[in-house]
Amino acid sequence: MMHRSAFLLVAAIISLDVSAAPSTPTFKFYGVNEAAANFGTELPGQYGVDYTWPNPDSIKNFTGQGFNTIRIGIQMERLTPDGLTAKFDQDYLGNLTSTVDLVTSQGAYALIDPHNYGRFYNEIINSTADFGTWWTNVASLFKENELVMFDVNNEFWGMNTSHVFAMNQAAINAIRAAGATSQYITPEGNQWTSAWGWTNIPGQDGVTNGQVMGDLVDPSNKLVYQMHHYLNSDGSGNDDSCVSATVGSDRLKATTTWLRDNKKVAFIGEFAGGVNDVCVSAVKDMLNYMNSNSDVWLGFTWWAAGPWWGPTHYNSIEPGEGIAYDTYVPILRSAANGEIFAPPPPSSTTTTDVSSSSSTSPPTASPTLWGKCGGVGWDGPTNCPGGSCCVPQNQWYWQCVLDCPTTTA
Ligand SMILES: *[C@@H]1O[C@H](CO)[C@@H](O)[C@H](O)[C@H]1NC(C)=O
Ligand SMILES: *[C@@H]1O[C@H](CO)[C@@H](O)[C@H](O)[C@H]1NC(C)=O
Ligand SMILES: *[C@@H]1O[C@H](CO)[C@@H](O)[C@H](O)[C@H]1NC(C)=O
Ligand SMILES: *[C@@H]1O[C@H](CO)[C@@H](O)[C@H](O)[C@H]1NC(C)=O
Asked: What are the boundaries of the region Disordered (predicted)?
């Protein structure tokens, strides 16, 4: 552990450097998630019913404004429905390839995100060999395109961290052996790859990401650790509140030290805040902090755009309809161009008392379409409006959606 005074000194020197040249872009990766082909829980599911693909105009809208990284969610079961080592569904693969090609033809990075939580058909993947074969097969297809990036897997949780380490190492070995040697790989950690919990939230084996993930080996030396960072009370992103105007930077500090101590770099693959004063201040403060520590923080992708992400979802920046677009797209662009935002006026820096935040007193009104209706710790009502169903999007977040499961109990 670095002494706190030494840490502050280093931080001060770095922030001086950055503010001396505020117009220099500091982030290598900045962009957005396209949540579309990973959508829904029906597996493998049907195009147009359970999932869709990103709108090409949405991708061009972002790349046209200088966003240079698009994280493309997919489901592994839709790409290889018959098993991890089985052949591709050529139709799904064709749509993935055209989406990737569109992104990279705009000069942007296409980050392929198997949005699977370390699971296949909802069961934990235990075979690192089969997982490696899946990645060999996928990486072989994209090895000539240097703008493709490989996301090992979205948000492992509920397993041994030593297993997550082994899954990451198997994917890295497989991707490099397939001949994809020039591309970036983003390993993810256990327990939702939380940036806040990286060094202190253990997996089932009592091991934290910080204890082991620094030992991953990449012969190409192009690992960018991917972490997720939501600013509400439990860090889940399940509601539009932010704990305080400085929660984003406060919760990154320990991990920043870990990255520097271990000589690693990272980026925030998911984060968001609602359209309210505390969150706007918190997002700006978080981006300021990352800008001031851009030796280890290489950038971010906002969660999320996507045609079905719901125009009214609090963090949607789908062009032309997402309610967070007008507020957050200009902020992300400015941050990417090196702007250090002014501190917020004193009133909005006041720390919200966590004990009185909305998460401890869930709403009593019925959920609306696209609203939250369940998940770990949820005491609110679960009755979705007619025609929609309450479907788990992950362990923490059940949502009222129109694509109701077709299987009967
Ligand atoms: C791929 O996209 C086309 C529309 O562009 C659609 O007709 C087709 O069903 C899609 N297939 C899959 C598996 O995504
Ligand atoms: C992997 O192991 C876990 C824990 O033992 C088990 O719950 C899971 O079903 C296994 N996965 C498969 C695909 O067999
Ligand atoms: C997880 O780790 C514990 C402790 O090291 C071990 O006993 C257990 O067998 C592991 N579980 C699996 C599914 O590998
Ligand atoms: C992106 O979409 C917004 C909102 O619809 C629009 O105002 C803007 O002109 C678009 N920009 C580009 C580059 O397409």
From this structure: 340-366
Q: Give the count of beta carbons closer than 10 Å to the beta carbon of residue 83.
A: 13
Q: At what angle do helices 325-336 and 277-292 cross, to 10 degrees?
A: 20
Q: What total of structural domains would you count in the chain?
A: 2
User: Ligand 2 center to residue 201 CA distance, Å?
Assistant: 22
Q: Report the separation in Å between the CA atom of 329 and the middle of ligand 4, taken as the mean of its atom positions.
A: 10
Looking at the CA of residue 326, tell me the nearest atom of ligand 4.
4
Ligand (nearest to CA of 74) = 1
Is there an atom of ligand 1 within 6 Å of 144 CB?
A: no
Write the Ramachandran bin of 287: left for phi over 0, alpha for psi from -120 to 50, otherwise beta: alpha
Residue 380 and residue 252 share a domain: no
Please indicate, yes or no, whether residues 325 and 370 belong to a single structural domain of this protein: no
Domain limits for position 270: 6-336
Cα separation, 369 vs 372, in Å, equals: 9
> What is the whole-number distance in angstroms between the Cα of residue 272 and the centre of ligand 4?
20
CA distance linking residue 138 with residue 152, whole number of Å: 11
Question: Sorting pLDDT into bands at 50, 70 and 90, what band is 400?
Answer: confident
Q: Which residue carries 């788990």 as its tokens?
A: 392
**What are the residue numbers of the active site?**
155, 270
What pLDDT sits at residue 385?
A: 75
Residues 383 and 234 in one domain: no
362 CB within 6 A, ligand 4? no
pTM: 0.83
302 alpha carbon, distance to own chain's centre: 7
From the CB of 126, is ligand 2 less than 6 Å away?
Answer: yes
Residues 313-331 pLDDT 10s: 999 999 999 999 999 999 9
The per-residue pLDDT for range 208-241, each reduced to its tens digit, is 999 999 999 999 999 999 999 999 999 999 999 9
| Token reading at 265 | 């770099």
